[in-house]
Design brief:
Number of helices: 12
Strand order of the largest sheet: 2-1-5
Distance between the termini: 25 Å
Bound molecules: fe (ii) ion
CATH architecture: Orthogonal Bundle
CATH topology: Ribonucleotide Reductase, subunit A
Number of domains: 1
Length: 489
C-alpha cells in the first residue's frame, strides 16, 4: 500500500487528471452536466465536512494517503495535507472489455453501462443505502481525535475518515451521473441525514450508534467496516458495470480500514497481556487489579466485541428476504465472491440451509437459495471475522494467559431478522426476556465498563509516544520511523 508515484510500474488505464477540481478517471471534462452537478455539490460537501467531520484538526497537516490512480501497484501517494483540502476524487476500477452479467436471470448478457429502466428504483435504493453509511461513520467518529492514544492512531483515524468521504463521493457520482434529478436529490439528502439524529437519522441502525472511545473505534473498523467489505464485494459483482467498477476500487481502500481495526484491538490486547504478566496477574477476571494497571481487561474487550458483532450482523438484513432475492435475480447485487462459487449462479432450483428459531429452539431449514442470499452473506461474514479473532487469540496464548475471545452465537442480541424476538446468550442458550435482562451485563458492556473506557482515553500527542493501554505498532505507516510526526497539530 505504501507505493509512491516513482515506483509505479505500469500506467493506469485512464490517467487521473489532477488539474481538475475533482480528480477522476471518468472523463469528467467531457461531461459538462455531470461536472456542473458535482461542482455544485462539492461546496455543500465541504460545509458538511467542516460541520460533521473531525472536530478540531481541520487546520492540522496530516500525513495522508491520497488515491491518484487505479493501477493496483501504484494507486496512492502519501504526503501532508489539511483535511478540508484533501483531493476527494472519483475513481473506478478499469473497465473490463466484454464483461457479462455474472448471475441472476440476465446471466451471460452484456453488463449494463446504463441503468436498466425496469430496475431503476431498486438500483437507486442500493446505491443510497451504501452511500448513507459512508458519511455516517465520519459523523460517529468525529470526537475521537481529542483522545487519540498517539499521533500514529490519530492519523489512521483521519485516513479512514477522508476515505469514507471519498466513498460518499463515489456513490454521489453514480447518483448524479445515472439517476437524473432524483439522483441529485438523493445526493443532497446524503448530506442532510445525521448519525444518531432523532428527526433525520442515518438509514441503518449500527450507523446511529455512538463511537465514544477508541476501543469502540477499533471494534467498529474491524467488524462494521468488514460488513462494508461484504456489501461492496456483493455490489462489485453487479451487472450494472459502473457500480461494479466503483465498488472494486473502494475495496482497495477498505482493506486499510480493517487493518486499523484488527491491529488496534490486537495492540490493546497485547498491552493488557504485557502489563498483566509484568504485575504477575494470572486471572483475567480480576478486573480491578487489571484496570489498576491502566489497561483494558480482557472480559471488557469480549463484551465490546459481542456488542459490535451483534449490531453489525443486523446490517445484513433479514436472513430470509424477498428484496435480496429480487436484487440477486435482477443481476444487481450478487453473493460474496460470486464468480468463484461453483454453481449455476441463477439458483432457481437450489436451497440453502438457514438457522431459524422455532418454538424456542434452533432448527436448520432448507430455504430456496434465492431467498437466503442475506443468510449466506451473513455466514460468509462470520467466517471472515474469525480469522482476525484467531490472530487476537494467538497474542493472548503467546502471553500464557488463559482466555479466548469468541464470536457470540448468531442469535445473540439481534434486533433484525430470524432472531429479532429471541433472547439468547452468547453460548446459544435461549431464555425468557426477564432472565436475559438480568444477565445481559455479563455479555454486553455495562455503564461502568463504558465509563471506564471513556475515562481511560487521554490524548497522547508527542511523536513516538503511546497511551498506557495500547502497544506500539510493529511498523510505521508508509514505513516511517517510530517517532514520525504523523499529524502536525
Ligand atoms: Fe467506506
Ligand atoms: Fe471503511
Amino acid at each position: 500500500m505504501s507505493t509512491t508515484p516513482e515506483n509505479m510500474t505500469s500506467a493506469p488505464v485512464v490517467q487521473v487528471d489532477y488539474s481538475e477540481l475533482i480528480p477522476n478517471n471518468v472523463e469528467l471534462n467531457s461531461d459538462r452536466a455531470l461536472r456542473r452537478a458535482l461542482e455544485r455539490w462539492q461546496p455543500e460537501y465541504i460545509d458538511w465536512w467542516k460541520e460533521m467531520g473531525p472536530d478540531g484538526f481541520q487546520e492540522s497537516d496530516v500525513y495522508l494517503r491520497t488515491a491518484v490512480g487505479v493501477d493496483k501497484a501504484g494507486w496512492a501517494k502519501f504526503g501532508y495535507v489539511k483535511m478540508p483540502e484533501y483531493r476527494w476524487g472519483i475513481l473506478l476500477a478499469p473497465r473490463e472489455e466484454g464483461r457479462t452479467i455474472p448471475f441472476g436471470k440476465h446471466k451471460g448478457e452484456p453488463a449494463w453501462q446504463e441503468v436498466p429502466g425496469e430496475y431503476r428504483a431498486m438500483l437507486r435504493r442500493l446505491v443510497v443505502i451504501q452511500g448513507d453509511t459512508e458519511p455516517a461513520s465520519v459523523e460517529q467518529q468525529r470526537f475521537l481525535g481529542k483522545t487519540a492514544p498517539s499521533l500514529y492512531d490519530l492519523r489512521n483515524l483521519f485516513q479512514v475518515n477522508v476515505e469514507e468521504g471519498r466513498h460518499l463521493w463515489a456513490m454521489v457520482y453514480l447518483l448524479q451521473k445515472y439517476f437524473g434529478r432524483d439522483g441529485r436529490e438523493e445526493a443532497e439528502e446524503l448530506l442532510q441525514r445525521r448519525s444518531g439524529n432523532e428527526d433525520k437519522p442515518r438509514i441503518l441502525g449500527a450507523f446511529n450508534e455512538k463511537t465514544p472511545d477508541w476501543l469502540s473505534f477499533f471494534m467498529f473498523t474491524n467488524f462494521t467496516d468488514r460488513d462494508g467489505k461484504m456489501q461492496l464485494e456483493s455490489l462489485a459483482q453487479s451487472g450494472f458495470d459502473p457500480l461494479s467498477r466503483t465498488c472494486r476500487f473502494m475495496l482497495m481502500e477498505e482493506a486499510f480500514h480493517m487493518f486499523v481495526g484488527e491491529s488496534g484491538v490486537s495492540r490493546t490486547i497485547e498491552q493488557t497481556c504485557i502489563k498483566m504478566n509484568e504485575a504477575g496477574i494470572k486471572d483475567p477476571d480480576d478486573t480491578g487489579a487489571v484496570r489498576a494497571l491502566g489497561v483494558i481487561d480482557l472480559p471488557t474487550i469480549q463484551r465490546k466485541a459481542n456488542f459490535h458483532m451483534s449490531v453489525t450482523r443486523d446490517l445484513f438484513g433479514a436472513e430470509v428476504s424477498t428484496n435480496a432475492a429480487n436484487s440477486f435475480n435482477a443481476g444487481l447485487k450478487g453473493r460474496f465472491q460470486e464468480v468463484k462459487i461453483d454453481d449455476d449462479h441463477q439458483l432457481e432450483n437450489d436451497t440453502y440451509k438457514v438457522m431459524r428459531f422455532r418454538d424456542g429452539r434452533f432448527v436448520e431449514e432448507d430455504v430456496p437459495a434465492l431467498s437466503a442470499i442475506n443468510a449466506r452473506l451473513l455466514d460468509d461474514y462470520i467466517t471472515d471475522c474469525q480469522g482476525g479473532i484467531n490472530r487476537w487469540n494467538k497474542v493472548i496464548e503467546k502471553a500464557g494467559i488463559d482466555f479466548t475471545i469468541r464470536q457470540p452465537h448468531k442469535a445473540f442480541n439481534r434486533r433484525i431478522g430470524e432472531f429479532a424476538d429471541a433472547n439468547v446468550s452468547p453460548d446459544g442458550e435461549a431464555m425468557d426476556e426477564q432472565t436475559w435482562n438480568s444477565r445481559k451485563e455479563d455479555w454486553l458492556p455495562s455503564g461502568s465498563d463504558l465509563k471506564y473506557l471513556v475515562d481511560l482515553m487521554k490524548p497522547v500527542t508527542e511523536p513516538g509516544k503511546y497511551a498506557s493501554w495500547i502497544s506500539i505498532p510493529k511498523v510505521g505507516i508508509d514505513k516511517q520511523p517510530g517517532d514520525f510526526e504523523y499529524v502536525r497539530i
